[in-house]
Automatic annotation (TrEMBL):
Residues 9-72 form the UPF0033 domain. Signal peptide: none annotated. The lineage of its organism: Bacteria, Bacillati, Bacillota, Negativicutes, Veillonellales. This is Sulfurtransferase-like selenium metabolism protein YedF. InterPro entries: DsrEFH-like, Se_metab_YedF, TusA-like, TusA-like_sf. It comes from Veillonella hominis.
Length: 200
């Protein structure tokens, strides 16, 4: 290890993913030439932080001390180039939210996954250009939604947020819209036909 290399510690013991990866990413983005030591206390977080480090071109060493794992991420020529460059331009991507939970099966699990989804979306290098909300997903953009704060942050970053007016009326929450604009099915259909759509 070079003597002049800055060494930073990210202690995320007691945290579950995606927080260990997100906190490590924040330090990496702000200090691309530093050695980062991330401390976690579970194998899932260990594996995910290791994958993140390798995806950024770091050399990753892992040391276990009891139940704790110390991941030392050392930058090299590849990591400096990769971290400092601009994210790849994937073009305009539109997300169509169709319900207020993710996946099929357990709705309770799906609602917990949705909370994690918005946190990860905020930290992603590439953001969608627009997010449309239809059916029960409009409940996520009203004033008492647990997701509202994160969706507002996306709007502040320039992501266009729009909710279906008919859907807001159906659930009786049109007057509680907390972020974005009210749109119609014509505009949503036009986006589906003309843009790169991801349906969730």
């Amino acid at each position: 290890m070079m003597s002049n290399t800055k060494e930073l510690t990210v202690d995320v013991r007691g945290s579950l993913c995606p927080k260990p990866v997100i906190e490590t990413k924040k330090v990496s983005d702000a200090n691309p030439n530093a050695v980062i030591i991330t401390i976690v206390d579970n194998e899932v977080s260990r594996d995910n932080v290791e994958k993140f480090g390798k995806s950024r071109g770091y050399g990753v060493g892992i040391r276990q001390d009891g139940k704790d794992f110390y991941l030392t991420m050392t930058p090299n020529a590849n990591s400096v180039t990769e971290v400092s460059c601009e994210p790849m331009n994937y073009g305009n991507r539109v997300i169509l939210m169709t319900k207020d939970y993710l996946g099929e099966g357990s709705e309770e699990l799906g609602r917990n996954l949705m909370k994690t989804f918005w946190v990860c979306m905020l930290e992603a290098d590439v953001k969608p250009s627009k997010i449309y909300f239809i059916n029960s997903s409009v409940k996520m953009v009203v004033n008492d939604s647990v997701h509202l704060e994160n969706i507002k942050k996306l709007a502040e970053l320039g992501v266009e947020i729009a909710a279906c007016g008919i859907c807001l009326d159906y659930f009786g929450v049109k007057d509680k819209l907390g972020v974005g604009s009210i749109t119609n099915m014509y505009a949503i259909t036009d986006a589906i036909l003309g843009d790169n759509i991801v349906k969730l």
